[in-house]
Fold these 2 entries.
Entry 1:
Amino acid sequence: MNTSTIVQATYENGVLRPAHPLDLAEQQVVQVQLDIQTTTDHPHITCTPGICGGRPAVRGTRIPVKVLVKYHQMGYTLAEILSGHTGLTPAQLHDALSYYYDHQAEIEADIEADELTVLLDHFDLEIDEASVFHSAQRHSHR
C-alpha cells in the first residue's frame, strides 16, 4: 500500500523528532522529504532559504512580511489587505504585523532596501524627465 502523509518534525542534534507519535509497522520503510524552514518566534512567519530571499514571509506562502506592512503603512485596512491576498488568513496577517512590531528595525531595513532611490543607487542608474532609465556613469561624463 502506497500512502502519503505529511508529518511535521524537528531536527535537533542529529535526531529527527516527529511532532506527534507515528503509527508505523515494525521495519516499515518511510521516505523523508525535507522542507527546510527557519522558525521564528511567530507561528505564521518563517525565514526559508530560497523563499523571498530568506527574508521573513508568511508560512506556506510567498508573501513577505514587508509587503503586508507596507500596505498597512499606506493606510489599507486589514480587510482590504486580506481581499487582495486570497488565501491569507486574518491570523496570518495579524501575526505578520505582530512580527513587524517585534522586529521593526529589520523590516524597516527590508522596506527601505526596496525604495526606488536605493535601487537606482545600487544599480548605478538615473531616471530622466521621460521616466527612462539610464546609466548614471553615462551622464557623469558630460
Note: The helical segments are 65-73, 78-84, 90-102, 104-113, 116-122, 136-140.
Entry 2:
Amino acid sequence: MKIKKQAFFKSGVSEVWNKATDLSDQLWRSDISRVDSFEQGKKFRETTKKGAVTEFEVILFEPVSRYACKMENAKFSGSFSLCLSIAADGSPEKDGTRLILTEEIKAKNPLLAPAMYCFVRAAMARYMADLALALGEKN
C-alpha cells in the first residue's frame, strides 16, 4: 500500500530539511524514544516509546530536496520518502516549505494490512504535527 501526505510549513526549506534529517536530534517526535545511527548515517534504527524497532537504510539523499529510505521491522517492510520544495506562489504558504511524505508498506501478515493502513496514516499525521511543533509552528 502506498500512502502520501502533504504539509506546509512557514519555516524555510533548509530549516525543515535539517530538522527532519538530523538523526542526532529526532526526539522531538512524540512516538520515538531512541535513534541509533550507523555507517555515517547511511543506516539507522528507531525505537518507539512502546519498544518497537524499525531498521532503515538511506537510499537517496539529495540535500534540501529529497530523502528516502528502505525500512523494515517485525510487522512490515517498505520505504518512505520526504520531498521538500518552496511553496509555490499563490498559495497561502507562500515563501514557506511544502513537504510531501510518502510511505509504501507491505504488511508481513496480509491479514494486518487494513489495520496497518490506518496505523501508517495516523503515524504520518503525528510526524507532521510533531515537526510543526519542533519548528515552533502550530499545525
Note: The radius of gyration is 15 Å.
